[in-house]
Write the structure tokens for this entry.
Amino acid sequence: MVDQEKYAQYRTEMTPLLEAAGGRFRYDFEVARTLKGEAGHDINRVFVIQFPDRASKERFFADSRYVEIRARLFDTSVGGRATIAEYTS
């Protein structure tokens, strides 16, 4: 994360869309230091998002309102990202 204020604004604006799609943050951590990783950059934030099903997840990430928020705030506040795992139950 390179801009805490913009990232906080991103979370504020995207959370209602996430919740409307049936999603939620299950866990959210600020990480002090990366001891081992394959992302090619340090990781300072780790979170888990849950959706009721894959279709809900795909609709959320494709929503034009989310895409605009992400481009304006997430992409400019985060230096890199990594998906560590994804699963369906």
About this structure: The chain has one domain: 4-34+42-77. The radius of gyration is 13 Å. The longest helix spans residues 4-20.
